[in-house]
Amino acid sequence: MSTSHEPFFTPVDINGVALRNRFAVAPMTRVSATEDGSATAEMARYYERFARGGFGLLITEGLYTDRAFAQGYQHQPGLADAAQARTWRSTVEATHRHGARIFAQLMHAGAISQGNRFRDGTVGPSAIQPRGQQMAFYYGQGPYPTPRAMTEEEIADAVQGFADAAGRAVGEAGFDGIEIHGANGYLIDQFLTDYSNRRSDRWGGDASRRVGLLLAVFRAVRAKVGVRVPVSVRISQGKVNDFGHRWAGGGRDAEAIFGALADAGVDSIHVTEHEAWRPAFDDGPDSLVALARRFAPRVPLIANGGLHDPARAREVLAAGADLVALGKGALANPDFPDRIRAGREATAFDPALLGPIANIKPSELAA
């Protein structure tokens, strides 16, 4: 192994969960569950190969949390009941057999749901039509409908849904930790975003107030799973429906969001950008990873975004990240850590892998 790669292969700890190296698999929606949201044997094989290939941490695709408005896609897996949760146990056990750990990512789609078998219509912080178009490779078509603004009771139900799903993830499925999906344009991010959250109550206002839903979800999840289970939060600026979005308040918003998460006691922050090493804003050189490190100085950081190049990955580690999460790089190289350790070149990602539908392909399981 090259000495330049040695930093990737030192162990790291997230709230007592020991990881064998600094490589994680990023959450990636694969719409491959059964119609009723159960994980399948094919999904277990899909996740197992990342563990077998040397990754220290796996983070699942977003799992919907309730039987109301959380589901975002057809064939999305869920944790909305104990039966769904139990279908993940074989995946968790396979991950552990190969020495890796696995976190369940909990997701509520909110206003950008494009496939919910439980409810007609969508909800969000405000009755504002989402930007962009539904994603065809997740069975979507056309513009997003305008959501209905959530009531206080519906917000409370959504928060409880996250907590109950977290309890099932740990108790029924045996996951090692939880990641709360606060990124990429889904419900929590809709509350964080200035143009989609026009509320005048306690859930709206400046960034220090718009982060309120995320903090409420974190506290509810923490209360459900206890202090010994790692609870991470994923944060982004860009969204699946608004790729180039940047926080209106720039560094002030970064300070409000990351500082609030640090004060709340989150166990790690997962920062995702298209290219994680680039400046977050036009008025300074700092990446979002560097800003997270500045405003949450003692919280472990996971960085995601174009980091399949080891040189770029080392750059974000130097900027303060503790782990590097790979998405497309992991799809093309489920054995990425073992390849790097052995000095072998990584395979380039083939976009056809996610088209025309982004489901798991037989060729992936044969690899």
UniProtKB/TrEMBL annotation:
Keyword Oxidoreductase attached: yes
Superkingdom assignment: Bacteria
Chain ranges of the NADH:flavin oxidoreductase/NADH oxidase N-terminal domain: 8-345
UniProt-listed InterPro entries: Aldolase_TIM (IPR013785), NADH_flavin_oxidoreductase (IPR051799), OxRdtase_FMN_N (IPR001155)
Keyword Flavoprotein: yes
Any one GO MF annotation of this record: FMN binding
Alphabetical keyword list: Flavoprotein, Oxidoreductase
Name of the protein in its database record: NADH:flavin oxidoreductases Old Yellow Enzyme family
